[in-house]
Write a structure and sequence with these properties.
Distance between the termini: 41 Å
Number of strands: 11
Strand content: over 45%
Shape: elongated
Structural class: mainly beta
Largest sheet: 7 strands, mixed
Number of helices: 0
């Protein structure tokens, strides 16, 4: 099985910066895409940024230019650097990882979510 541990988040004033990190661990697994999503109160979960194994990155229009996603394939970690934060960035942020793992019956796909970390931006 694959597990995720998130870190970072917290309270910051508008214009400030935060860094979110997520580490994947387990045995006999590979990772394709690593990303961060957020779910503001009363709204659906939405993509913030993701990065695939080849290095291609996607960003939500609302954070493009303010956020940078990066991954360390050797450590199975993904980091989201968020700058120039705005009150509307306030949300619970979730790490998401998908890939393949070796099961008793062969390689199978998986997709898992972290437990979520709160980001609050005060005005």
């Amino acid at each position: 099985q694959v597990q995720l541990v998130e870190s970072g988040g917290g309270l910051v004033q508008a214009g400030g910066s935060l860094r979110l990190s997520c580490a994947a661990s387990g045995t006999m697994f590979s990772i394709n895409t690593m990303g961060w999503y957020r779910q503001p109160p009363g709204k659906q979960r939405e993509l913030v940024a993701r990065i695939i194994s080849g290095g291609s990155e996607d960003y939500a229009a609302s954070v493009k230019g303010r956020c940078t996603i990066s991954r360390d394939n050797a450590k199975n970690t993904v980091t989201l650097q968020m700058n120039s934060l705005k009150p509307e960035d306030t949300s619970v942020y979730y790490c998401n990882v998908n890939g393949r793992f070796r099961s008793p019956t062969g390689w199978r796909g998986y997709g898992i979510w972290g437990q979520g970390t709160q980001v609050t931006v005060s005005s």
